[in-house]
Amino acid sequence: MTKVHREAVRFAQDGYTVVLVGHDGHEEVEGTMGEAPDQIVLVQNEQDVEDLQIDDPERVAYITQTTLAVDETSSILARLRERFPKIVGPRTDDICYATTNRQSAVKQMADGCDLMLVIGSRNSSNSVRLVEVARDCGTEAHLIDTAEEVQEKWLHDARVVGISSGASAPENLVQELVDLFRERGVTDISEFHVIREDVRFMLPKKIREAAGGSAAADGVVEAR
Question: What pLDDT, in 10s, does the model give residues 22-60?
């Protein structure tokens, strides 16, 4: 069971109406709503928040689909808090930190690019959203599965090309795209840094105890 699923069950068991911010039809949303279908309602935008009819406005909780855009979510949550001042949320932000960081990087990078190429699956919400973020900045952007899908016409007037990828895209696909430009004679290639991911995950108690005096005894694993 995922973190969002657990939160949905916890809030439902505590007697809350659970507002799920997400996209209708997304597999994560469908799975989460299945945990407590009688107590979870889906909202996709601010208008949905306006239309909500909840029996007890003082017992409302919210959870979010992990692959949503940060900007998109913040306005919906703000409206939820206006309508339901006592609304409660998860202990920590549901939106995946890797997804959040990529969106932030694409937003900043797109301003200086003529073209953005995002490697990811077309059924990946976070990959599709990266393309939307770039286009919202006024930059031409395309979602591709591999370097082979790059079209020559996209490159005609592109002086600066930005490359990003969905959270689950293999690193080798990104490298193949970079190699494509190297083969075309591009020499000015650099990495764009926005946020250094330095997240610590607590190991289960039994593993910490078994680790004893080893380096793992501190009980954390660092993801960088």
Answer: 989 888 888 999 999 999 999 999 999 999 999 999 999
Residue 88 has a CB neighbour count (10 Å cut-off) of 13
Query: Using N-to-C axis directions, what is the helix angle for 97-110 and 125-136, rounded to 10°?
Result: 30
Q: What does the DSSP 8-state code read for residue 93?
A: -
Catalytic annotation, pick one of 28, 46, 132, 171: 28
Task: Please check whether residue 135 is in contact with residue 88, taking contact to mean a CB–CB distance below 8 angstroms.
Answer: no
The CATH fold assigned to 97-183 is Cobalt-precorrin-4 Transmethylase; domain 1 (3.40.1010)
Return the number of other C-beta atoms located less than 10 Å from residue 199's C-beta. 11
Closest CA to 168 of 130, 195, 113: 130
Number of residues written out for the chain: 224
Beta-strand pair 199-202/220-223 = antiparallel
Q: Model's pTM, two decimal places? A: 0.52
CA 190 to CA 13: how far, in whole Å?
A: 50
Q: Is 28 a catalytic residue?
A: yes
* Nearest by Cα to 134 from 116, 112, 161: 116
- Among 2, 8, 3, 10, CA closest to 20: 8
Mean pLDDT, the chain, rounded, equals 81
Nearest-angstrom CA–CA distance, 202 and 181: 40
Range 3-83 has CATH code 3.40.1010.20: yes
Helices (H), 37-149: 46-51, 70-83, 97-110, 125-136
